[in-house]
Design goal:
Elements: H1 2-25, H2 36-44, E1 50-64, E2 77-93, E3 97-105, E4 108-110, E5 124-126, E6 130-139, E7 147-154, E8 167-169, E9 181-190, E10 195-204, E11 219-220, E12 229-230, E13 237-247, E14 253-265, E15 269-271, E16 274-276, E17 281-294, E18 299-316, E19 319-337, E20 345-353, E21 363-364, E22 371-372, H3 381-384, E23 399-408, E24 414-424, E25 444-458, E26 461-472, E27 481-492
Parallel strand pairs: 8-22, 19-21
Antiparallel strand pairs: 1-2, 1-27, 2-3, 2-4, 3-6, 4-5, 6-7, 7-9, 9-10, 10-13, 11-12, 13-14, 14-17, 15-16, 17-18, 18-19, 19-20, 20-23, 23-24, 24-25, 25-26, 26-27
């Protein structure tokens, strides 16, 4: 009840405030500043060859019972304020070459103990380093061909927009602070056959300062117990090759096919001055495909599936074990567009990610989402997975989910959505569980509910309130309610 009351107060307060502004002005659009846009463009584009920009994001995240999976734990409530600042620039060079760079930092204020890591039992400020999260050279029309070559640190997302499945975030260890992959990407756009080819090689290191020095030491230093504990970008060193093809030669249809190879190599890091091995050894081969398009002007669909094989050595009940991989995953989405004044949309989506069968000790059936560890459909549920994947946030697997979502635009610049999913587990026993938080004799994960209210006030200012709940099912040892509440303001220059 305490969790529900807090969430309800936040939602009611925001709704009341927005309603008041709308009643007084008839609009939620911010007033334009005199000549501001013209001045901003001149500042951001001082010469024909240079452009730059910046943004500042403030979030407050409240996560009751989401990490502990129970309200009986004294650390059940987490609350953290996150302050991300970024500045970026692009310098154009001769022959269609450009140099791109972006500097980012995100200090965090824990108003409640984190429940994990250095702030497990203590609140306070966590000062982190600054990092160049984009540094690359991009060559368009390379060799006078429809070829783009990008070399260096870059963001790469493959698949449906904002539903990127297996390639989206190369740095899950720092949350949504950064997303980059240290990589070389070649994109060939064969427009005569409506086909785009991508070949990507990846060389990602767990340590933030391995390739490019950070601004400040990438270790915890503000809490004595955790001095000399590293901030890893991910749990292990990762290399890989991606071949991705997308064809749109059929009317109203896109067909994608891909091969992804990912190699994980354990890295020994420090935690409190002692050796620490948080990651895995693995060779994972993934073949997959996707088909999407329009059935009619009102109906859209997307189907994607993948199969994995190879081998993995990771912790099972605290002991490293090397096993053969045989896993699969699939997702689907069907959308109806009303095409009315409020832009009403209704869609039904489903997903299946195989789980590890405890009765086959020589085989690992757990699907690996590769570089897809980001909050694709839930901000809340990625944290709950730490308890069943040896501490790895967003390492989703052993999951079946399906349910509807409705979105519409109540007024100009505003979007509201509400979604429900029924959540199940293929296997009743999570083989990487680190605590007795699971019943081990149930396959219903629970009921998931999400509401999101967003508003774009103008080109430079946006905000949202994001609320999620999971009412736990018999997959868990208890039947408590997990929650997530996040108000956010984003300033962009």
């Amino acid at each position: 009840m305490k969790t529900l009351l807090k969430c309800a107060i936040v939602v009611v307060a925001l709704t009341t405030a927005l309603s008041t502004v709308y009643a007084q002005t008839g609009s939620l659009m911010m007033p334009d500043l005199c000549n501001f846009e013209e001045w901003a463009q001149q500042v951001k584009n001082p010469t024909p060859w240079l452009t730059w920009g910046a943004d500042f994001r403030v979030r407050d995240e409240y996560l009751p019972n989401t990490v502990t999976l129970t309200d009986k734990d004294p650390l059940a409530e987490q609350n953290v304020a996150r302050f991300r600042a970024r500045v970026w620039g692009t310098a154009k060079m001769p022959s269609d070459v450009s140099f791109n760079a972006r500097l980012s930092a995100e200090p965090r204020l824990f108003t409640e103990p984190a429940g994990f890591g250095p702030r497990k039992t203590a609140s306070g400020m966590e000062w982190r380093y600054g990092i160049l999260d984009n540094v690359n050279l991009k060559w368009n029309n390379a060799f006078q061909q429809p070829l783009t070559i990008t070399v260096g640190r870059q963001d790469i997302m493959l698949g449906d927009f904002y539903d990127w499945w297996l390639v989206a975030d190369g740095t899950p260890g720092d949350g949504s602070w950064t997303f980059f992959l240290d990589s070389v990407r070649l994109t060939y756009d064969a427009k005569n056959i409506d086909t785009k080819f991508d070949v990507i090689t990846i060389l990602q290191h767990a340590r933030a300062d391995e390739w490019i020095p950070t601004i400040g030491n990438p270790t915890y230093s503000d809490w004595p117990r955790f001095n000399d504990t590293e901030h890893p970008l991910t749990e292990q060193n990762e290399t890989g090759v991606i071949a991705y093809l997308s064809n749109k030669s059929l009317k109203n249809t896109a067909i994608d096919a891909y091969f992804i190879y990912k190699r994980d190599d354990q890295e020994t890091m420090e935690r409190g001055g002692f050796p620490w091995i948080p990651g895995d050894n693995a060779d994972i081969f993934t073949f997959g495909g996707k088909i999407s398009g329009n059935i009619t002007p009102n109906w859209q669909y997307s189907l994607e599936g993948a199969y994995q094989f190879g081998n993995k050595e990771d912790r099972i009940l605290g002991v490293f074990a090397d096993r053969d991989i045989s896993a699969y995953g699939a997702k689907a989405k069907l959308t109806y567009l009303f095409k009315d004044k409020l832009n009403n949309q209704l869609f039904v989506s489903g997903e299946f990610l195989s789980g590890d069968d405890p009765s086959t000790p020589g085989t690992d059936e757990m699907f690996d989402v590769l570089w897809g560890r980001w909050p694709r459909w839930s901000e809340l549920y990625i944290y709950s997975y730490a308890g069943e994947t040896s501490g790895k946030i967003a390492q989703m697997n052993n999951l079946m989910r399906f349910g509807p979502c409705w979105t519409f635009n109540p007024t100009k610049g505003m979007t509201f959505s509400v979604a429900y999913n029924a959540l199940f587990a293929q296997e009743e026993v999570p083989t990487r569980a680190v605590a007795p938080r699971f019943s081990n004799n149930g396959d219903f994960r629970g009921h998931f509910l999400q509401t999101v209210l967003k508003h774009q006030f103008n080109k430079h200012l946006s905000a949202h309130i994001w609320v999620e709940f999971v009412w736990q099912g018999d997959y868990y040892a208890r039947r408590d309610v997990m929650g997530f509440v996040r108000p956010e303001i984003l300033f962009t220059f």
